[in-house]
Amino acid sequence: MLPTIEWKGDSVVMIDQRKLPVSEVYVTCKTASEVAKAIKTMVIRGAPAIGVAAAMGIALGMRKSKATGTKQFATEFQKICDQMAATRPTAVNLFWAIDCMKKAFAAAAQSGASVDEIRQRLDEEALKIHDEDVASCRAMGAYGASLVPQTARILTHCNAGALATAGYGTALGVIRAAVEQGKTIAVLADETRPFLQGARLTAWELVKDGIDTTVITDNMTASMMQQGGLDLVVVGADRIAANGDVANKIGTYGVAVLAKEHGIPFYVAAPISTVDLNTPDGSHIPIEERSDREVTHVGSVRVTPEGARIRNPAFDVTPARFVTAIITERGIARPSYEASLAELCRTPPGRA
Ligand code: MRU
User: Fold this and answer.
1) Which residue of 51, 55, 157, 307 shows the fewest CB atoms closer than 10 Å?
2) What is the edge-to-edge ordering of all strands in the sheet holding 266-269?
3) At what angle do helices 115-145 and 47-64 cross, to 10 degrees?
4) 93 CA to middle of ligand 1, Å?
């Protein structure tokens, strides 16, 4: 796989996800503001990936800071953190990553570190967030693959792949791990209107990996389930509330309800950084409303008449009762999620 995001000298470079699969081009960010803009405009997207991007953007901003004293350095740091936090509201990984950077800053400053030493610590923290994300995906993949039959037809929604993380993917990590174990896997990828993450990104990743992939439009899912032969659904998440309610790409809720009706297991794969124990249930999760243009146009072609009102909520909330299990890097949570998620959050990393 091509890297989703990486350092190139003093720049953060990302593959432009708006242009895939037609062109594989990169966006080079030389400032923290450019990284924030890349997150907001979906050059990079997916909950874990935008967390990693925010951390790298903060480290980049502080690399470029001309501040000589810690006070001015701290003021600039806070401003950049605020800028990153204002990019997208739903995925909690973004706020988790900013918080990790703030803790790293505070620890270094309290130990009397110089501006250069704090800068170094922020670089290290961003790299740690990046590398741990790939390791989490691998661990999630191993746990999740145990739920996949030897021969399986799997449906996924949106893109929870290498592009949505620092590499390997959450839901697609489960699929990749099952393939690596020698299982025979065929994937149904929902197109995922309006941004087409499924058709453009999931299909691109899976085809590159030589995994059997069929793209369907979102309104075909019910019929596919009714026809039979679908073994499970696996999706990612942007925020999981303490009670197990899951915010994910718009359309996920419908897929989950359909899966329950047809007796198909509905799995969510997400790192612990997606679990937000401070949010009691899904009704408290802020849902991003994106621009009308994503709905009114397909590419550059207008598909709705002028004058029609438009709604474009980017995410929905799937109530916990539709979720068969939540796969994390620390193990698999089953209902009741209040208890199982709290337990996994307490489990030290690598000790599941
Ligand atoms: O708007 P997006 O493309 O950032 O939404 C992404 C999703 O909803 C993904 O399913 C989710 O972030 C999980 S990614 C591992």
Assistant:
1) 307
2) 212-216, 184-190, 151-156, 232-235, 266-269, 325-328, 331-333
3) 170
4) 11
Q: Where on the phi/psi map is residue 169: left (φ > 0), alpha (ψ -120 to 50), or beta?
A: left
296-313 tens-digit pLDDT: 999 899 999 999 999 999
Residue nearest (by alpha carbon) to ligand 1 atom 10: 236
Strands (E), 30-92: none
Structure tokens at 305: 């008449």
d(CA 249, CA 86): 19
Comparing CA positions, the residue from 186, 170, 193, 272 lying closest to residue 232 is 186
Q: Which residue ranges have their beta carbon within 6 Å of ligand 1?
A: 45-48, 91, 158, 160, 164-165, 170, 197, 236-238, 248-249, 314
Q: How far apart are alpha carbons 77 and 80 in whole angstroms?
A: 5
pLDDT value at 255 more than 80? yes
The predicted-structure confidence for 119-143, as pLDDT tens digits, reads as follows: 999 999 999 999 999 999 999 999 9
Record the pTM. 0.97
Instruction: Match 């299909």 to its residue by tokens.
Output: 203
Q: How far is the CA of 13 from the centre of ligand 1 (A)?
A: 20
First to last CA, the chain: 28
Element (H, E) at 72: helix 70-85
Domains of the chain: 5-138 (1.20.120.420), 141-346 (3.40.50.10470)
The total of other beta-carbon atoms located within 10 Å of residue 20's CB is: 20
Closest ligand 1 atom to Cα of 165: 15
276 a catalytic residue: no
pLDDT digits (tens, 9 = 90+) for 15-62: 999 999 999 999 999 999 999 999 999 999 999 999 999 999 999 999
Kindly give the pairing relationship between strand 266-269 and strand 325-328. Answer: parallel
Rounded Cα distance between 273 and 133, Å, is 9
Look-up of token digits 């593959």: 15
Read off the amino acid at residue 109: A
Residue with tokens 């050059």: 43
Structure tokens belonging to residue 227:
């026809």
